[in-house]
């Protein structure tokens, strides 16, 4: 989230699209209701189903799964065509006026530079024109036809209301009504907030879905302001934290990248991270990358990381491919390229696409370790549970270790919420039996391995032997010590160059601005610097005071970065530093510095007239309507059909799907055709359950006891399916037999003139826990992901449905 | 007057005879003062502040446990409700959060390490030492066998792709950091979390 | 043990009592359920089960989000869902939290023949006192909202207590506290009525011209009230009674028959009567029969004596 949960109350219009906030985030959704009641806000819901969020919406419009880019490009077309953009904001704070170099073009569904053979782009033409100083050329009058804004106008001109309706199945009048509501927030003192989640990410074009909305928000001037922003409602309690700390195949803590093997040395690695400003005088904050990197290496390798050994650069593993994501991992497993797998609090047999493939993959492992408070399906993949898990134990040679862990109530620590707040929590009871914390278990493994390497030697033991482990209790490090390690310390007495103030060696640092690239500071996660200082544990703060009740409680817990609650908040003020919305200022220029409710996302004394852009992490200092080379499938979002789709891409039938989606051969053969699987399916959570956990909790099992799918009345009638009757839902990959919920809430959509039916598949059921046994939605889902992130396409695929009788259980 | 029960019903139904039982001595005044309301169950329970383990709204919760943390009292969680001071949830909880008690005490909570041998149809309980010793051995044997020091071009790559890990998205950031250190010290790259699913 | 003192009773089943008058200053409480803010998440159901230690059986999916399928001895509140297509052809998903309305004039209490089994406190809460309950089921028939349920295990009647244990110590009910969107509010009846007025104005401004408060005068108002977008048609909300009426039989029992109490009839006999009225004669338990016989004999003796 760019903004906070409570800040939603400042919105004038709320759009929930690509998510179902009322069901998945009910307590955060209260601020939408608050916005309606206290701020007269209008709530819009765009969703294939009439959800529980839609039940309290002012406007609801249906949409075919997987067509959000067409819808949002249609919105952009409307805003540009009708001149409903916030001009001053767009002109000064976005790259609308920058000039794109010759050579960039878009034709018949492809951007310039496409390489058919490797399903990828040479992205070199997706860039600006530069002057002799290396700065991007611009035309603030927007006369130049190569200006970003003009290329954008041209790009979205195809998305007329008729075209949107033809692709999305959304009635034109409903679409236009929503465009009008959006347009109203182009006024400088009005804000639209976007609340989204996996409804946008779980597509082959997931990242571009979100970009499309971000562009709408930029055109309307709604980023950085109170009640605005792009608010990704994250799923798990600490998935933000896990991402922040870089537990992803290609990440390091604080959004630094794990080296690739083409970066053959530390210098080569740093070359791609210089982030030279692309306009004169811009901040381009990533220029400090080296400080964050060296401080990180000092944190984990201590004295063993020296200038001489390039701060132990070679001790980090180097990637040969962009990602070793989950789809890739299970592809490797199925190919026999993996020996072991450790699932810490994670249940891939339920969570990953194409369940059959997951089960086959796990069966090929030599060993599987699960660490979980609960008896997960994954840990029992080898056991026969009848049709819901037809396994033959005798044929599965995998050794399985099921390790019991503590749960939230039994440990101290911090979690990062969707609004980037680090909140500390305290242990309330002991774990059951002899269950242990993840910290104890991971440490137990590490200490054993280190001991084995000490005794026996073996492959490259250096990082194992030199990893800093100077905790008070080396067998179970205290969470507070780990938190301090991430915050970081001075390693020698540091003297501030401007103030002359001295930070003593060993002192916990207050800010990442203190980090250095000469090995004199250490920080395990630079964006967390300031979270645990000499003043104490800032994450444990409990002052809920909210000045002006504007949804910023600056002294409650601590937010990264630098306790900033609204990202890009410099953009909440106009060029002179006055709030666009005088009733809800976030920060303003008082003549000498930036002051206000929030910590400025900007140099605190940088004058408005200095022309420093508000988007300080970008080398242009501006937000990007044109993404340059940052996205795999193009600098502008373009509508591509889901991999399994009921319709051809009417814009460019020859390039129907995302041309750069990565598809493994085996998976390609597992895509279904619309002749065999004529209905669109989409998966989702129900509010009564949390993923595959709460079926273990009795109350939640009572509230939603059994697997079902949602089918519209028209289709049900066509197929003779009775309310609550049994149905078989099948895809190319498997079938689910469950109950049917025949509902008015899903209506057939007219897509390119043809009726299209959508089937809703809630995802919570498995074969352990207290709810009734189920097959699980991932029995049906395809193994293909977003071209940038490899997030699996769970939200749009093809199925068939038939009336049937109850499954025969073992 | 002789009456069957059925006749009696008709009779009273016609409104000729009925009674308020209190007047007949069934409801003694003293009984009325007996405790009516269920005693409030949290009066001396220990309150611990925590965060809901489910979604990223991160609602503040109050965990109530039996006992006052005295040496001889074993804490047992008896109730969980929203923290009214928390600026986001302000005391509210969703149907998952309101039922956190049932996940803490789920009958399927694991209590001891279990191990399944190749080809076996069942789990057996094992000691922590057995489990961790065996896993460490399996990891080391595979790492020593499959670790790549350099690639075909001779570039140092120091990566290990044959054992992977998924990290817990409900664990603390402190756990995550320690997990990162352990996984990357081994050179592990098949390493992911729940951000996508 | 915390308690509401007997002085706080204003009504008590099967008891002629004059409410203590000295404490005249207690505010009446009310729960306000604003269905226009309700997202049907069932947090109220969950919190109710958790706080009150209730765990009904795990059911099945039966073609609706409604689960369990009905109120029960351990289901004191239940979200009810109705997919309603309005005159404009737009879908409205009308979701209502069902449960005890805590009537000012409680039909259950009027019908109850067991002294002190149902009480009403000065704050308006209507509470079932289990150790006095004889499981006759008259409260079920007496209730205009079809709320109480009799347990097949212990033959006692159960329903929402408005968390009288929490309210007694100054807390709001568990469902109220949990409700993520503030669709359930709790406070003095005056404040809740006032707040409802504001909500209704907002709804009218959003095109719900028939928005209104459900506080039915037929039962002299309730301590659980609804804000409805279609207050002209409460029955749209999964059968919320348009005009809730206490059964005439119960009215008669209280209004006409009570003065004749001196004739004297035992509770158990009445149990038979109401059981027949409510459930029908086929389901009469053996104990009921025995009790009835005993009561008959007593009545006969009474009749003989003068």
Mean pLDDT of chain A: 97
- Report the end-to-end length of chain B measured between terminal Cα atoms: 78 Å
Q: Determine the strand fraction of chain B and express it as a percent band.
A: 15-25%
Summed up, the helix count of chain A is 21
Distance between the first and last residues' Cα of chain A: 46 Å
Structural class by SSE content of chain B: alpha+beta
Which two chains touch over the largest interface? A-B, 167 and 120 residues
The multimeric state of the shown protein is heterotrimer
Q: Percent range for helical residues of chain B? A: 25-40%
The unreliable regions of chain B are 1-35
**In DSSP terms, counting alpha (H) and pi (I) runs of 4 or more, how many helices of chain B?**
5
**Percent range for helical residues of chain A?**
10-25%
Largest sheet of chain B: 3 strands, antiparallel
Any idea what the shape of chain A is? globular
- Largest sheet, spatial ordering of strands of chain A: 26-32-27-29-28-33
Radius of gyration of chain B (CA) equals: 31 Å
Short description:
Chain A is built from 21 helices and 33 strands. Chain A is of the alpha/beta class.
For the structure shown, list the relevant keywords.
heterotrimer; B: 197 residues; alpha+beta; two-stranded antiparallel sheet; elongated; C: 306 residues; Alpha-Beta Plaits; 2 domains; 3-stranded antiparallel β-sheet; 9 helices; 29% helix
Question: Your description of this structure?
Answer:
The complex is a heterotrimer of chains A (810), B (197) and C (306). Chain A has 810 residues and is α/β, with parallel strands linked by helices. Helix content of chain A is 23%, strand content 15%. Chain A has 3 domains: 6-233, 3-Layer(aba) Sandwich (Dimethylsulfoxide Reductase, domain 2), CATH 3.40.228.10; 236-324 and 420-564, no CATH class; 653-803, Barwin-like endoglucanases, CATH 2.40.40.20. Chain A contains 21 helices and 33 strands. In chain A, a hairpin with a 6-residue loop joins strand 18 (494-495) and strand 19. In chain A, helix 3 (68-81) packs parallel to helix 9 (206-219). The longest helix of chain A has 19 residues, at 438-456. Chain B has 5 helices and 9 strands; from the N terminus they run H-H-E-E-E-H-E-E-H-E-E-E-H-E. Chain B is elongated and about 80 Å long. Chain C has 306 residues and is of the alpha+beta class. Chain C has helices spanning 43-52, 107-111, 138-142, 164-168, 174-178, 189-205, 248-257, 267-278, 286-304, and strands at 9-12, 29-34, 77-85, 91-99, 118-121, 126-128, 149-150, 157-158, 184-188, 212-214, 224-228. In chain C, the strands form 4 sheets. In chain C, strands 9-2-11-10 form a 4-stranded mixed sheet. In chain C, strands 1-5-6 form a 3-stranded antiparallel sheet, with no helix packed on it. Mean pLDDT of chain C is 85; it is low at 258-285 and 302-306. Strand 14 (399-404) of chain A pairs antiparallel with strand 4 of chain B.
